[in-house]
Design a protein that fits this description.
Elements (H helix, E strand, L loop, with lengths): L47 E8 L3 E9 L10 H5 L2 E3 L2 E5 L5 E4 L1 H14 L7 H14 L11 E10 L11 E11 L10 E6 L16 H16 L4 E5 L7 E4 L2 E7 L2 E4 L10 H12 L3 E4 L4 H10 L2 E8 L3 E10 L2 E4 L7 H15 L9 E4 L1
Parallel strand pairs: 8-9, 8-15, 12-13
Antiparallel strand pairs: 1-2, 1-7, 3-6, 4-5, 4-6, 5-17, 6-7, 9-10, 10-11, 11-12, 11-14, 14-15, 15-16
Helix pairs in contact: 2-3, 5-7
The structure holds pyridoxal-5'-phosphate.
């Protein structure tokens, strides 16, 4: 089934209706906050975490906030053996006025259930998901860094935690949310990246789990990532699994190409992760009057456009880096420098608009912001 990111249930932007009533056990030994000038991505975690259990016959239950810490698990636990696991990623930002904002969290809730369905994980009430995110962020709100380019990364995830090594869906799960204050995803911030076009390994095939956000996809992609890094590239551009002909995704984010005056991004037909940043970029660029097409694009069309001088821009879109311009693309030893290796105007506009809405400097006319109160 094709994932449909649009037309989902619209939540109120104010969350006064929120239940926010999970029991909280506060830590007795709060940690020192990291230096906001030197935040690496995903290395430091806050004082608390959210946990909820699922048991067959009982459903999801016992949601609670507890001090951050390790889990004790049986070595036979399903997730260790067969990777029945999913995750999400979103961010909380603090505005200049001190408000705490989330960007479209209801879409992460929706996508969680799409992923869950694919991996035989029981679905979660989408309001409970957003409430849990709001309450854990509120609990650790003093961990949200305020410096330009920083935020609190939110990582909801579900693991199959029944101790059982036969192959069938687990009968017990944990849904957890952990938080990490982060700096820019790439050390260079909005600086253009170098991308290697991968034509040996594949990320996803039709009918597989490409459109699900699950750890297994990432484990399978590490090898390609390592080999590209050894050649001096930050990320890879994945091609389709069948013919290695069509462009699909950039590492762990969605890909955008600007050829002539058309903004092109691959369509959601089963192998591509339906990014929330992707959906937002499409919408704001259409609003701006750009021609935006969700259509198949071959790597040969990209190289031909480069030769003709009509390949204007390329960028990656995803929560971690928001927008990441591509300055160089390497395909079969051919190196294409894009837009003089600089940041193009469309990437700049998309970044300024989305990051501006997220951080409260651009008015949220779309109702994309959920304030955590
Ligand atoms: C999470 C993810 C994206 C980006 O999705 P966002 O919702 O924009 O963060 C793109 N591709 C892959 C493979 C991902 O896991």
């Amino acid at each position: 089934m094709i994932f449909e990111p649009f037309g989902i249930k619209k939540r109120k932007t104010e969350r006064e209706e929120s239940r926010m009533n999970f029991p909280v056990t506060k830590t007795t030994s709060p940690k020192a906050k990291p230096d906001p000038n030197n935040l690496k991505f995903g290395t430091v975690f806050t004082d608390h975490m959210f946990i909820m259990e699922y048991a067959e016959g009982k459903g999801w239950h016992d949601g609670r906030i507890v001090p951050y810490g390790p889990l004790q698990m049986d070595p036979a636990t399903v997730v260790f053996h067969y990777a029945q696991e999913m995750f999400e990623g979103l961010k909380a930002y603090k505005t200049k006025e001190g408000k705490v904002q989330l960007f479209r969290p209801e879409m992460n809730a929706r996508r969680t259930n799409k992923t869950n369905e694919r991996l035989c994980i029981p679905t979660i009430d989408e309001d409970v998901f957003v409430d849990a995110v709001c309450q854990i962020v509120k609990t650790d709100a003093d961990w949200i860094p305020e410096k330009e380019g920083t935020s609190l990364y939110i990582r909801p995830f579900i693991i199959a935690d029944e101790p059982f090594i036969g192959v069938r869906p687990s009968r017990h799960y944990k849904f957890m949310i952990i938080l990490s204050p982060v700096g820019p995803y790439y050390a260079g911030g909005l600086a253009p990246t170098k991308i290697f076009v991968e034509d040996k390994y594949v990320r996803a095939a039709l009918g597989g789990t490409g459109e699900a956000k699950c750890g297994g996809n990432y484990a399978a992609g590490l090898k390609a990532q390592e080999e590209a890094a050894a050649r001096g590239y930050e990320q890879i551009l994945w091609l389709d699994g069948m013919e290695r002909k069509y462009v699909e995704e950039i590492g762990t984010s969605n890909a955008f190409f600007i050829i002539d005056d058309e903004v092109i991004t691959p369509p959601l037909e089963g192998t591509i992760l339906p990014g929330i940043t992707r959906a937002s970029v499409i919408e704001i660029l259409k609003d701006k009057g750009h021609k935006v097409s969700e259509k198949k694009l071959t790597i040969d069309e990209v190289t031909a456009a480069h030769k003709k001088g009509t390949f204007r821009e390329m960028f990656a879109a995803g929560t971690a880096a928001v927008i990441s311009p591509v300055g160089e693309l390497c395909y079969k030893e051919e190196k294409m420098v894009i837009n003089g290796g600089g940041i193009g105007p469309v990437a700049r506009y998309a970044y300024d608009t989305i990051y501006g809405i997220q951080t409260g400097t651009v008015k949220d006319k779309k109702g994309w912001i959920t304030e955590v109160k």
